[in-house]
Amino acid sequence: MSEANNDPVVVVKDVCKEYRKNDNVLTVLHNMNLELSAGDYVSLMGPSGSGKSTLLNLIAGLDKPTSGSVFVCGQDLAKTSQSALAKWRSRHVGFIFQMYNLIPVLTAYENVELPLTLTPLKKSQRAQQVKTALEIVGLGDRMDHYPRQLSGGQEQRVSIARAIATDPTLIVADEPTGDLDAKSGNEILELMERLNSEFGKTIIMVTHDPRAAARAKRNLNLLDGRLVSDSEVQKAEHST
Amino acid sequence: MIPIKYNIRSLSVRWVTTLLTIIAIAIVVFASILTFGMIEGIDNAFKSSGDADDLIVMRNGSSDEMSSTIAPEVARDLLTVEGVATDSDGEPLVAREFVTIMISSRRGKDATANVIVRGTEKASRTLRPAFKIIEGRDLEPGVNELIASKKMAERFEGAGLGEVTEINNVDFKVVGLFEAGGSAAESEVWADLRDLTAAQRIEGAVSVVNLRVPDEEKRLALIDRIKGDEQFKLDALPEETYFGNLQSSSSTALKVIAYIIAFFLTIGAMFAASNTMYAAVASRGREIGTLRALGFSRRTVLISFVCESLVICLLGGLLGCLMTVPLNGLTGGTQGSTFSEVTFSFSFGPKVLAQGMILALAMGLIGGLFPALRAIRLQVVNALRQR
Ligand SMILES: Nc1ncnc2c1ncn2[C@@H]1O[C@H](COP(=O)(O)OP(=O)(O)O)[C@@H](O)[C@H]1O
Ligand SMILES: [Mg+2]
What we know:
The complex is a heterodimer of chains A (240) and B (387). Chain A is built from 7 helices and 10 strands. Chain A is an alpha/beta fold and 240 residues long. Chain A has one domain (38-61, 84-239): Rossmann fold. In chain A, the strands form 2 sheets. A 6-stranded mixed beta sheet of chain A has the order 6-7-8-3-9-10, sandwiched between helices. In chain A, strands 2-1-4-5 form a 4-stranded antiparallel beta sheet, with helices on one face. The longest helix of chain A has 16 residues, at 182-197. Chain B has 2 domains: 4-47 and 246-385, no CATH class; 54-212, no CATH class. In chain B, a hairpin with a 5-residue loop joins strand 11 (331-335) and strand 12. In chain B, helix 2 (15-47) crosses helix 10 and helix 8 (239-282) packs across helix 10. The structure holds adenosine-5'-diphosphate (ADP) and magnesium ion (MG). Adenosine-5'-diphosphate binds next to strand 2 and helix 1 of chain A.
């Protein structure tokens, strides 16, 4: 399933991001440059307010840079209209949020099906993908449960199923374990590793937890809107 | 498309607010339907009175039957004009009628109103749509008997079956009750022409002549002849035209008032729906952000919230319609242009119910639009940062 070509999936080029409030200009990202290749699993660390979420949102096509360009899967996001961006996100990006962000009035099944309703798939085909996704995250038996009937860890697994149901190229996760206990957090991290190694998803994950970061293949460190370190993770090979 | 079950379940989560809003809307729709039903009923009272084949002959310049008089010999001439239809017994469908007003007390109320009393001939009955004696029997000429419409019998003292009413110090007895397809006759009490004019001491007087001429050419020729006759000084109108004129003068003001009331009630209900939806939008900021992150466009989210508002309002509308079911057949009275009582049946037909549902739809659309616009106003990233 992993991409065969070596073109980078994400290219962030000379990106600045400013927020203006009245006369104050707050520069959140300074001249950022970054590339992610297909199959990368990148963690993004840094103190609170350093711009991690802002960078993630730019890459996910939720926001646009003040200057510079962001190419993801060949699309120049800065030059794409809002409505085209919405459509683009539904095809190429899977989202995992810190607070899971499941729709409370929809069941696990319906939550996972939601992004699929934006695709041309028929109901029966959607059903197949929803089931597959929920089985991957180990919740094949909880399809009819509402979010409030699930634990935090289970909710986050539903949200991972939702993120992969459309088979996107890129998965963005903003502190996916930030609201979970260690055990559930660990299950989520294992799942993310599988998505990367088994299904070849390119993942970028914001985290505060060094142990979570250690599970990724590559670590980025952000400080005051600047990339201060970029390193491969040294890992003992656990498979040949 | 965001599935509608998302909206329906969101509404049922906030079921108390939802229910209160539905009830508020139902009450407004109900009140509006009541008003529209009344207008429709009044319209019917006049509309079903006119028949395209029938002519009403009255004095030139009179706007209503009461102020019309026709010389007895002229009226007699009209009995034999050419082209007049005949009834099943071969008698011509021409009726001389005398119309007067008496003051009667309302039943159960300390109030009086003008009631039309009509002196009639046999053909008067056939010339009214769906005229039918439903209780008692038809009156016998020459013995001072009356028949009253069922609605008038219910509303006025002395008009009930078996009751006696004094007209110009002469006692008349009600021997039957009739219906006439909701037409103007249902606002009247009928006597025999000669009995009534005798009691009024103007024997032989005629206010109008009603006649049926089915052939259009002959009808138009007759109208021309009557209008053209310098001596007669009469006017001949198709009944439809006559009742159309009456109706426009009597119910226009009522209609205007009714529509103004319905309009303001609707605006009020719109605010109720709007408020509910604003609250819904405010409490679902992050949900909206999530939907949009997943790829639902601004327009799709907007439509979804408008649909949610429509669901509330349509439910309210349906409830409002249901509330009118026990009121079917309700009757009312109003003053006609001649200051006599006009009775009508509230009409809650498909047209009136549809008007109510259209109001509900408008409440949902307009009341839901502004909250929905607020829902999509935020940038996705800012919506995601809420709560
Ligand atoms: N929409 C916004 N408007 C104004 N300031 C913002 C907005 N989003 C983020 N910021 C500011 O940008 C900075 C970086 O935010 P963020 O990227 O969320 O940081 P992190 O995720 O690293 O904690 C913070 O100071 C934050 O207050
Ligand atoms: Mg953040």
